[in-house]
Design a protein that fits this description.
Elements (H helix, E strand, L loop, with lengths): L9 E4 L2 E3 L7 E2 L1 E5 L2 E6 L1 H4 L8 E4 L4 E4 L1 E3 L4 H7 L3 E2 L6 H13 L7 E6 L16 H4 L8 E5 L3 E4 L1 H7 L11 E5 L5 E7 L3 H4 L7 H17 L2 E9 L1 H14 L15 E6 L10 H9 L12 E3 L2 E4 L29 H14 L3 E5 L2 H17 L8 E4 L5 H10 L2 E4 L1 H20 L5 H6 L4 E3 L11 H10 L16 H8 L1 H6 L17 E4 L16 E6 L2 E5 L2
Parallel strand pairs: 1-6, 2-7, 8-15, 9-10, 10-11, 15-16, 16-17, 18-19, 19-20, 20-21, 21-22
Antiparallel strand pairs: 1-4, 2-3, 4-5, 7-23, 11-12, 12-14, 13-14, 23-24, 24-25
Amino acid sequence: MLALDLSPDLIFHNATVYTLAERQPTAQALAIKDGRIVAVGADVEIQPLAGPATQRIDLAGRTVLPSVFDSHNHLLQVGVKLTRLRLDECRSPAEMMELVRARAAETPPGHWIVGEGWNEGNFIDADPPGRLPTRWDIDPATDQHPVILMRFFNTDVVNSVALRLAGITRATPDPVGGEIGRDAAGEPNGLLRAAAKLLVRNLLPQPTLGELKQAIHLGCQEMNRYGITSVLDPGLYPYEIAAYQAVVAEGRIARDDGRRNVPVSVRLNLMPSWHGFREEETEAELEARARGLGIASGLGDEWLRLGGLKMAIDGGTSSHTAWMYDPFEGKTHVGDFNRLDPQTLRRHFHTAQELGWDVGIHTCGDRAMDAVVDAFAAVAHSTPWPDARHSVIHAYFPSARALAQMAEHRIAAVIQPTFLYWEGDLIFRDVGEGRAANYKPARRYLDHGVVLCATSDIPSTVSPDPFAGLYALVTRKNNLGHLVAADQAISREEALRAYTINGTWLTREESLKGTLAPGKLADLIVIDRDYFTVPDEAIKEIQVLMTMVGGQFVYSAT
C-alpha cells in the first residue's frame, strides 16, 4: 500500500504576507499543495510541514499579496492589439503617421492597416497640442491601403480609402448613437464617434480561430506581467467564446507524465455580448443568445466560467458620447447617445433576471446611470432574485437616488481607476469642476455599502497596471499629479480589496480566490516593496517580481 504524501509542494517563508482574510490578515509563511493554499502562519508553524520533496522559497522579507482579479478586462482584444500598430505612446498625429508609413511599406496593397490606443491627451508635440487626427493626416502616408486608427475609447480615425470602402460621403447621415466627423464644408474628416465606428469596423476581416487563440495566449502573458491572474472579459461574441474554450481545452491535454497542464495562465470569466452594441443584430437573435442553450451565469469551473451578459447604454465622456443631463463643456446642446430607452432596458433586465443571467451594463453619463439603476430597481421589485449580481460598469456620476438603489439591491459599481490616473485631466475639460467632483466616487460608493470593483478596462486605457490604479484610488491623483475629487480617496486595504476579493462577488467565486487563506486557490504575487508601508507616491512604482496561478509560476521578473 502506497503511503499518502500530505506534505506541501511549496512553502514561501521569511515573507511579509497580506492575506486580506479576516481571521489571519498577516503572516510570515504559507504552504501550497495541489494548486491550493493549505496553511498560512508564522515561519515556525509552517516550515515544519515541509517534506523531502517540498520546495522552499525564502522571500527575504518581500511582500506577498493576493493576485489581481481584473473584473473588466478585454484580454482577447489586448492580444489582438499586440499584433497591431501600438499608438499609446504617440505624442502627435505626425508620429502616428510614421508608424502607418512604415507598416504600409511591408503590407500588400489593399490590405488593412490597423492601429490602436491613440489619445489626444498625449499629443503634446502636435500643433496645436491635443489636435485630433483626421484623414488628411493619414492620406499622405498611404493611398494604397484602408487604414483605421482606433482611439483608446469610442472614436476612430480612418483614411479616404476606408471612407470609400464604407460608402461614407457628405450625404451619409449620422447613425443613431454616433457621429461622423465633418469639416466646415460638411465633408467627412475621417473621425467616427460611437456607433459611427461600426461603419468601418464592420469591414475588417474577422480573425481566424488560430489568430484568436494566439491573441488569448499573448493577452495572458501580458496580464501576468502585472500580477493579473483572473479576468472578466466583457462583450464577447460566440466566435470569441469558442476561441477561449478551444484554448482552455487544449491546455487540459494530459502530459507525458500523466499530469494536466495549466490550461492557460489566467482564469477566464466570459461575458457574452447582449443588447446595445451591433445594430445589425436583431432583438430576436439577441434574445436567443440568452435563452437558446438553457444556461446562465456561473456555468464553468475555476479556469473558464460564464459571467453575466454585457450590455451598453451610452458612450464615454472624453469622446463626448456619454448620455448626460447637461451639455459637455463648450457645447450648447445635449447629444442623444442613449442606445436603450427605459422601457426597453426594463424588458431586457427582466428577461435576464428571469433566466438567471447577471447583467453588467456600460454606463458613463449621469442621465444614463439614473436610467440604468432605475430599471434594475424596478425589475428587482417585480421579479425578485436575491442572489443577482448585476453591475454598473464605469459608473462615473451616481446620483443620490442611484446610490441608494444600488445599495438596496446589491448592484455593484465596476470602476476604472486607470481612467482616473491616465485621463484625469480630461474629465475637467469635458464636464467641468462641478460634475468632476462626483467622478468615480469610490469613497461615496463604499460609504453607501455598494460593492466596489476596481478594474483596468484595458485596452481602453494605457496600461492594466493595478498599482497605478491603486495609487489613483488612494491619492486621487492622476499621472500628472493633479487631484481629481480628492475627498473620494479610500484606504489602501479598501483599494486592494476592490482589485481582488470584491471582483469575485461578481462571479460567485468568493470561496475560490481573492484572499490567501487555507482552501483557496494559490493565486498570488510577490512584489518588490511593501504596498502597505511605502509612501503614497511610491505605490505607482511597485513592480511585480513573481506571479503564481494555481501553485505554478507564470511570470518572473528575473
